[in-house]
Amino acid sequence: MKQPTIAVVSVSGGKDSTATALLAIDQHGRDKCRFVFADTGHEHEATVEYVKDYLPRALGATIDVVRADFAKDIARKRLYVAEVWPTKGVPPEIVERALSVLQPTGIPFLDLCLWKGRFPSRKAQFCTQELKRHPLDAYTIDLMRAGHRVESWQGVRRDESANRRDVADREMTPEGWEIVRPIAAWSAAEVFALLCDRGIEPNPLYLQGCSRVGCLPCINCSKDELSVIARRWPHHVARVREWERLVGMASKRGFSTLLHHADGEGGDAEHAYRHSNIDSMVEWARTGRGGHTFDMLKTLPLPACSSVYGLCE
Ligand code: SF4
């Protein structure tokens, strides 16, 4: 007997996944689609509201939310720190310091970093896998176990980045579901045109200078994006400052930073921290090209609307 097909659309609050959701509904009908948001706890509140409140109304569909849970990993790490660190010569005050913060907070991104004792980086980008891929895979596997053939619809475009230049329109995963990328050949303008056509508002962050709307800030965020974030949403800079303090306490080195500045490489731990902590990175984001001159323009108040996609026109 032919298995019923379910299209699973991973919704991030970004334009591409919203367009993909619309196309999945066109092809399969709302009843044969599932929409799922991997909540990292590191998104802007506008994105969370857009995904949990606006989009369900706009799409006429429920959006399921999955959240990675690292409570067991943190419990195992506590044991390891208490029992093994002392045998490896780690001073008692560093063991005590780590144990004082190794408790699950329920915020997936922060808990992941507490468990690992560090933030992810471009070279060790474990956040995508742990916070998005694993929970979404588990969601998909549950549907397959319930007897469905699953298509995983992804809002990925080839012109987004060099990494994505060669992505296929469709491919099978070793686990047995099919990945479908209906907008792989689209431009950003075409995506926004579809949303406009269907009367769907884009995430409001696009109107405030963000070129992407996932984690805020993403570990891969650009200098200009960080400058916008620092000026518009200083409370998110304050949140990252606090997370850097906590994750630093959980690490043997005593510090870890969300972002990494090239000038911080090659020196000792203190040198790396001095260049890459969130406040230093924000200061650097206020400079012009080359990073040595202060850019007065980057201190001026931002206009209410400053879309990098020209949505204000
Ligand atoms: S959006 Fe950035 S910080 Fe968030 S999971 Fe993806 S790579 Fe990591």
What does this structure look like?
The chain has about 325 residues and is an alpha/beta fold. The chain folds into three domains: about 5-70 and about 125-205, HUPs (Rossmann fold, 3-Layer(aba) Sandwich); about 70-105, no CATH class; about 225-300, no CATH class. The protein contains eleven helices and six strands. It has helices at about 15-30, 45-60, 70-85, 90-100, 110-115, 125-145, 190-195, 225-230, 235-250, 270-275, 280-285; strands spanning about 5-10, 35-40, 65, 150-155, 170, 180. A six-stranded mixed sheet has the order 3-2-1-4-6-5. Helix 2 links the parallel strand 2 (about 35-40) and strand 3. Helix 4 (about 90-100) crosses helix 9. It is globular and about 60 Å long. It starts with a strand and ends in a 28-residue tail after the last helix. The model is unreliable at about 305-313 (pLDDT under 50). Iron/sulfur cluster binds near residues 127 and 219.
Regarding CATH, which class of the largest domain?
Answer: Alpha Beta
If helices are DSSP runs of H or I spanning 4 or more residues, what is the number of helices?
11
Largest beta-sheet characterization: 6 strands, mixed
Strand percentage:
5-15%
- SSE run: EHEHEHHHHEEEHHHHH
Rough outline: globular
